[in-house]
Design brief:
The protein is α/β, with parallel strands linked by helices. It has helices at about 15-25, 40-45, 45-65, 65-70, 80-105, 160-165, 180-190, 210-225, 275-280, 315-330, 360-365, 380-385, 415-425, 430-435, 445-450, and strands spanning about 5-10, 30-35, 110-115, 115-120, 125, 130-140, 140-145, 155-160, 170-175, 195-200, 225-230, 230-240, 245-250, 255-260, 260-265, 270, 305, 345, 355, 370-375, 390-400, 405-410, 455. It is built from 15 helices and 23 strands. The structure holds flavin-adenine dinucleotide.
Length: about 450
């Protein structure tokens, strides 16, 4: 006999736990299923561990810059990877056990540990136990793509999951993929002391960003001693002594790069391939993402998909917003939509790249008359005081409506600073809301009004 619940939540990523707690609080008996560590990618192998490591890497980098700031450390900085990783595990572990305790102690929530598969539109099997519910919420997330290239099975490949567990320093880390995940690891491991080579198939890194963002970040990474191979497709992998040989089809440089470790950072795929979606009739797109409407509803009434598995956002904040959308509709009578959100994220290199809304390329393609404000960090006094003059900020404005279209704050603190622009965009207010504001001196943010007082037409 199946065990009957009002709701079943599959996955305890960034949407599931909050939703389960809200459903239970509203009186719905709720089963929560988790096959791995509680808290999902962000907590265990994504945001929290990587940002903890980025913080260690930055502290190490700053210690090496003592000469610039007027101090000496009494010798070379020695990095103890076991301690770096212990700090990371302590911080990320606390979050994971916090989610687990929360789920196990929430009245009205029953936790099942195991792999869940749908067996029909209202039923789920976990380790042989049959569960039934009128509402099923999928929050199963995604995992790293490991491309089917010759030799992939013959060498020890790292993904974000494996590299997080490594507590030794790779002598030479080869990062395949010059985008967000790969570049955060590339810079931090270079700062920890590894030799690092990035292999990127495009002709620039972070190809979704504007050209000057890619070029500036490239020169920052190269200045730190990272070897970046562009227009280089990774074609084959083979064991080498010691480590791994990567054969790359390169426009420049040798075709074989030998390293001690290889990190695959070439994209993510949804965890929907072994979820029984076909048994329930839930539609997916060609890449396996669950197709949802603006309210996270799938093709099957009574089944929702939230977070990365619905392909509508690849971030913790978008997954959490999906929870707010579903809880708003089911419990609060508050209609919220996926399309309400403005694209925003940060790439946590140092300096970070804070991004909101459109790029220059997208603004041009939109056919609008666009104004642009630009400020290099060399012309921001706080940045000079901090010896952090790499990067720039830029905002794009619709010349007719005066609305902000997008911005990049590629600067120390850029991940935080971008929110002053983002909030004005959410308020649907004109850019003059900021250009006429008085900001605190001396800050990086203080130059945002100045930048917006000097807008120029975007060259065609
Ligand atoms: C290295 C890295 C760094 C990142 N950094 C950032 C960042 O700085 N900022 C940011 O916003 N985003 C970042 N992300 C992305 C972010 O981690 C994800 O977008 C976010 O965690 C997605 O949340 P989710 O709720 O969709 O799924 P997840 O967090 O992936 O959770 C899914 C859960 O479902 C479970 N599960 C899957 N299938 C089943 C099943 N069949 N049965 C039972 N349980 C199942 C999994 O075990 C997992 O616990 C990063 C990602 C990576 C890889």
């Amino acid at each position: 006999m199946p065990t009957r619940y009002d709701s079943i939540v599959i996955g305890t990523g960034q949407a599931g736990p909050s939703l389960a707690a809200r459903l239970a609080k509203a009186g719905r008996t709720t089963a929560v299923v988790e096959r791995g560590r509680f808290g999902g990618t962000c907590v265990n192998t994504g945001c929290i561990p990587t940002k903890t490591l980025v913080a260690s890497a930055r502290a190490i980098h700053m210690a090496r810059r003592g000469d610039e700031f007027g101090f000496t450390t009494g010798g070379p900085v020695h990095v103890d990877m076991a301690r770096v990783k212990a700090r990371m595990h302590a911080i990320a572990g606390q979050s994971s056990t916090g989610v687990e305790r929360w789920m196990k102690q929430t009245p009205g929530v029953t936790v099942y540990e195991g792999h869940a598969r749908l067996t029909g539109p209202r039923s789920v099997n976990v380790n042989g136990a049959e569960l039934e519910a009128g509402e099923i919420f999928l929050n199963v997330g995604a995992r790293a793509v490991v491309p089917d290239i010759p030799g992939a099975a013959a060498v020890p490949l790292l993904t974000n999951r494996g590299i997080i567990e490594l507590d030794t320093l790779p002598e030479h880390l080869i990062v395949v993929g010059g985008s967000y995940v790969g570049l955060e690891f590339a810079q931090m491991y270079r700062r920890f002391g590894s030799r690092v080579t990035v292999i990127e198939r495009g002709d620039r890194i972070i190809p979704r960003e504007d050209d000057d963002v890619s070029e500036t970040l490239l020169s920052i990474l190269q200045a730190e001693g990272i070897d970046v191979r562009l227009s280089a497709t990774c074609l084959a992998l083979a064991p080498a002594s010691p480590g791994v040989a990567v054969t790359a089809d390169c426009a420049q440089g040798p075709a074989v790069v030998e390293g001690s470790h290889v990190l695959m950072a070439v994209g993510r795929r949804p965890n929907t391939d072994d979820l029984g979606l076909e048994a329930a009739g839930v539609a997916t797109d060609a890449r396996g993402f669950v197709v949802v409407d603006d309210h996270c509803r799938t093709s099957v009434p009574g089944i929702w998909a939230l977070g990365e598995c619905n392909g509508r956002g690849a971030f913790t904040h978008t997954a959490y917003h999906d929870f707010e959308i579903v809880a708003g509709a089911l419990l609060d009578g508050d209609e919220r939509r996926i399309t309400d959100r403005i694209l925003c994220y940060a790439l946590y290199t140092d300096p970070p790249v804070g991004r909101v809304g459109m790029t220059i390329r997208e603004a041009r393609a939109s056919g609008r008359r666009v104004l642009v404000g630009y400020r290099p960090m060399t012309k921001v006094s706080r940045a000079r005081e901090m010896s952090e003059t790499q990067g720039f900020m830029r905002a794009l404005v619709d010349a007719d409506t005066k609305q902000l279209l997008g911005a990049v704050v590629f600067a120390v603190g850029g991940d935080e600073i971008l929110h002053s622009l983002l909030d004005v965009m959410y308020a649907n207010a004109p850019y003059t809301t900021i250009s006429r504001a008085v900001h605190v001196h001396p800050t990086i943010s203080e130059l945002i009004p100045t930048m917006l007082q000097d807008l120029k037409p975007l060259p065609a």
